[in-house]
Amino acid sequence: MHDFVQHIKRNVWPIVICGAGIIVLGAISGGLSGGIVAKRMFPASPSGQGFTVQSSTSTANQRTPQVATTTPSSIKLVPVQLVDASTRSVPESIFTRRSPVGIIYLHKKGLPLEGLLGQNDQVGSLVAVTSDGWFVTASSAIKDFRTADLLVWYDGKAYRVEKAILDHATQAVFLKTSAKDLPATPFADIWADRSGIAAWLEPAPEEYVPSSIIALRASVQAEPLLSERAERRLIALGSLQKNERGAAFWDAKGALIGIAETTSDGRIQIIPGSNLAASLQSLVQQNEIRHASLGVYVLDRQAIRSMSSDASMPNRGAWVKEDKRTGRAIIKDSAAEKAGLKSNDVILQIDRDIMDNSLDLSDAIMQYRPNSSVTLRVWRSGKELDIATVLGSQVTSELLP
Q1: Which end of the chain has a smaller Cβ tally under 10 Å, C or N?
Q2: Are 140 and 287 in contact (CB under 8 A)?
Q3: CA distance 230 to 38
Q4: Domain count, the chain
Q5: What is the CATH number of the domain that holds 313?
Q6: Which of the residue ranges 10-24, 95-109, 183-197, 332-346 has the most confident prediction, judged by mean pLDDT?
Q7: C-alpha closest to that of 236 among 204, 200, 202
Q8: Which residue did the predictor score with more confidence, 59 or 260?
Q9: What distances in angstroms separate CA 135 from CA 161, 182, 269, one per listed residue?
Q10: Do residues 199 and 184 lie in contact, with contact meaning Cβ atoms separated by under 8 Å?
């Protein structure tokens, strides 16, 4: 009985009927079988019951949207739409667009596609990010499975995963399928804004759970982090089933805030969409994920509290500190070493990007092209200086078996 009540809570949503001014409660989601399915009131994909893999019936198939081909220049960040978190109705901008969300199922290689897949076969959610078949999900969703055994259900059709690429910088996985004419996904630039904004989780196609971004950092940083790993996570209210990892979070205009990674105590950790966009840009352009690199271990001065005998030390910036495991603050032969950075330097700015806790050093570096020339504004022993630096280049992609 408890599971049934929870199912109702997650799948009954308020729908505003335009022109009539009436708020109608949507019905409970069910399987694909049955009578007429009301668009936006039922999920477009099956949930909880078995369904025929070869079925091509879908409410989404009745739409014929124009889809632009994804190119590197079409992958763009847009300002996040600021809407008060008290807003609970799903925006029309999300309702009216073709959902890019799909479901990942475990379906052993060699088994025929004919048959049934149930909720027990579902391992995660994913989001279409290019028109020619690329999706993205969290690595935590598929880490225990072989690529060959994964099946993507999207828009009423099943697709084998042809290729899976893990991005070590973000811990996201990009999955290639033979799907065509997928909707384009805009990515929200969350760093320029604030917490407390409204967000909508879409764990399955056209199922929406109201939420809000309550923090731009998962926890207080205790140890120095390598500048090449984008480890910051957003925090949203809500919970996930194990088979919903990789689910999309949208802002009020339907831009991707990020994808769900883990959940605990009513809070969800999210891989930021702005970092996913940077990795996707490289993947589309170069067929691998390559990021700029600096090669330092740093602490965020504004995110930690520390005692210092130097009163002039700034209270913000990326503080270059030794990593206990490696015993180094600067990676050998890295761009940072070549530029002359030193332990205890505080990086205040990279070109126009100010290190003020709204942006981690790794997040900032990820937005630059490899081998870019930048100027670092650095605090050192009470003085500020500009250091010309040529960023390095690193491949962060790995082809999964």
Answers
A1: N
A2: no
A3: 41
A4: 2
A5: 2.30.42.10
A6: 332-346
A7: 200
A8: 260
A9: 10, 10, 19
A10: no
